[in-house]
Design brief:
The protein is α/β, with parallel strands linked by helices. 43% of the residues lie in helices and 19% in strands. The longest helix has 25 residues, at 3-27. It starts with a helix and ends with a strand.
Length: 328
């Protein structure tokens, strides 16, 4: 066979095979998954997402593909990551980990379905028309993080009943959530007659710098915002709180295995599983506009008695009696 004929044959075969491959790939739906943090911190979330998809008959790399985008803790990267997936024309966008993500996705597309997880009220911040009938191309899970912020402050005051001043650590790079949660915390502080010391941090170095400020202000306790950014820095925050003997409460149970004193918040992995179920239902043809935004069914209180003992705190029997989990 002459070289020119061989190359012609090879070219024809090469042209035919990708067409078949593309046809097979195009038949497989593609989910775009956007998260504020990183792959390394998302093992539990990804397992939960896959469980939810599995409940609707979808298995990654078998009958559905997932394209992942990670913001590495930077809220300012979310719009660009979402836009990449819109250009990729994915079948559904799942956006988690930051209140900023869903508004960015909503601004980027009016046609691709979006499944969100929100810490702030999705109606109040303009994502959906109502919880029961979202309208448009968005639906998802309301984590009630902002709504439960006042309760976190009350629980902290039960641990430190003589507290006069409480530091509130928040992330200004997530302004929608920060504003919503701040209103709740401020209202609770006024109701209980305690002073709030606002401490802002959007980077690891700013978290480190926040604690000398907290010590200088002689605060009695610390409330850490439910912002997703802080989840990836719980090791650092918990260690700093322990070093300075500051009682602290967190919005996620993920602070507890590294020595957090208390957490009060929804199960994130269960919410991600629900997001996976909704994603599968949308892939099967249901419309986001007709899927009610779900609110988390349960908010859990966890208490770490070992940490309490280390900083000289006695947890009341009343608080122990209502805890969902006690670490000893």
């Amino acid at each position: 066979m002459r070289r020119r004929d061989f190359l012609s044959l090879l070219g024809s075969a090469g042209f035919a095979w990708p067409l078949g491959a593309r046809a097979q790939h195009s038949a497989m739906p593609v989910i775009g998954y956007v998260h504020l943090t990183s792959l390394e911190t998302n093992g539990e979330n990804l397992a939960a997402l896959r469980r939810g998809l599995g409940e609707t008959g979808y298995i990654e790399n078998k009958n559905v593909t997932v394209e992942y985008r990670w913001a590495e803790g930077r809220n300012d990267r979310l719009p660009a990551l979402v836009s990449e997936l819109v250009r990729r024309q994915v079948s559904v966008i799942v956006v988690i980990g930051s209140t900023n993500g869903a508004p960015a996705a909503k601004a980027a597309t009016e046609t691709i379905p979006i499944v969100f997880m929100q810490g702030a009220d999705p109606v109040q911040i303009g994502l959906v028309a109502s919880l029961n009938r979202p309208g448009g191309n968005l639906t998802g899970i309301d984590l009630l993080l902002a709504e439960t912020a006042a309760k976190r402050l009350e629980l902290l005051l039960e641990v430190v009943p003589m507290a006069k001043s409480i530091a509130y650590l928040r992330n200004p790079s997530n302004p929608i959530f920060a504003a919503t949660e701040t209103r709740e915390v401020e209202a609770a502080a006024r109701a209980h007659g305690v002073r709030l010391q606002f401490v802002n941090a959007s980077t690891q170095s700013e978290i480190e710098a926040a604690f000398p400020e907290v010590i200088r202000e002689r605060v009695d306790a610390l409330q850490v915002s439910g912002d997703g950014f802080f989840i990836i820095h719980f090791d650092q925050i918990v260690a700093l709180a322990a070093r300075h003997g500051i009682p602290a409460i967190y919005a996620s149970r993920r602070a507890m295995p590294v020595g957090g004193l208390m957490s009060y918040g929804a199960s994130i992995s269960e919410a991600v599983r629900q997001a996976g179920v909704y994603t599968g239902r949308i892939l099967k043809g249901e419309k986001p506009a007709e899927l009610p935004v779900q609110r988390v069914a349960k908010v859990e209180l966890l208490i770490n008695l070992k940490t309490a003992k280390a900083i000289g705190l006695k947890i009341s029997d009343n608080l122990l009696s209502i805890a969902d989990e006690i670490i000893e």
